[in-house]
Amino acid sequence: EDGARSGAYWGISTDIANYHLADSLEAPVNKTSALAKVPIRLKRLSSKTQERLINWGYAVCDAAMRKHVDQGASPPQGFPYPAEGVG
Questions:
Q1: Cα separation of 73 and 67, whole Å?
Q2: 76 in helix, strand or coil?
Q3: Residues 6 or more apart in contact with residue 21 via CB below 8 angstroms
Q4: Tens of pLDDT along 32-75?
Q5: Distance between CA 3 and CA 76 in Å, rounded?
Q6: Residue 6 above 90 pLDDT?
Q7: CB 60 within 8 A of CB 16
Q8: Which CA distances in Å does 49 have to 42, 54, 60, 64?
Q9: Less Cβ crowding at N or C end of the chain, within 10 Å?
Q10: Where are the domains of the chain?
């Protein structure tokens, strides 16, 4: 083993389209940009906002990992909270 590591970085403001995956979850940048601006200073969020944030994190994590770490991984079947999507 040569000590090389693989990994990925993603942030709440990432544009999922930059991963160039045809089968990523639908997460339009205009909607995820709005989620990135949600103030979350240990303040209670509405269930809808919380579910959208969870879905966004799930989608961007999946895209980053499948692009940079495990290109053979299967795409997800959907969001954890499918009724909400990302907005």
A1: 9
A2: coil
A3: 63, 66, 67, 75
A4: 999 999 987 778 899 999 999 999 999 999 999 999 999 999 99
A5: 30
A6: no
A7: yes
A8: 14, 9, 16, 22
A9: N
A10: 1-87
Q: Write out the E strands in the chain.
A: none
pTM of the predicted model as reported, rounded to 2 decimal places: 0.89
64 residue type, one letter: A
Indicate left, alpha or beta for 42 from its phi (over 0: left) and psi (-120 to 50: alpha). left
Largest CA distance in the chain: 48
From the CB of residue 28, how many other CB atoms can be counted at a distance below 10 Å? Answer: 14
Cα dihedral value 59, 62, 63, 68, nearest 10: 160
Is the per-residue pLDDT at 1 higher than 80?
Answer: no
What the block records as the tokens of 20 is 């160039």
- At position 83, the amino acid (one-letter code) is A
